[in-house]
Write a structure and sequence with these properties.
- By secondary structure, this protein is of the alpha+beta class.
- It is built from 1 helix and 5 strands; from the N terminus they run βββββα.
- A hairpin with a 4-residue loop joins strand 3 (34-40) and strand 4.
Length: 86
């Protein structure tokens, strides 16, 4: 379990993808009334937020266009986020 002490705490998110263990740098931030996670995925900033169904969606900022990481890897990151929040 990860405990956050402020709305801008950073940590490393462990993700296993295709048999390889990764440690992605993550930052918890507040956006209006919701919290989002900014995660550095192989030098690409990806923002994870909850969608209307409560699942995690990945958003790439406009300045990151054309640098989309592997979609399956983004799904694995979403699953890892969900696991640490249980």
């Amino acid at each position: 379990m990860i405990y956050f002490y402020s709305m801008e705490d950073s940590f490393f998110l462990p993700v296993t993808f295709k048999g390889v263990e990764y440690q992605f740098g993550a930052l918890l931030k507040r956006r209006g009334y919701v919290a989002v996670l900014e995660i550095n995925v192989h030098d690409v900033l990806v923002i994870f937020e909850r969608d209307e169904q409560g699942d995690w969606r990945a958003i790439l900022p406009e300045d990151q266009a054309g640098k989309t990481p592997d979609v399956a890897l983004l799904r694995a990151i979403g699953e890892a986020i969900e696991q640490i929040l249980q």
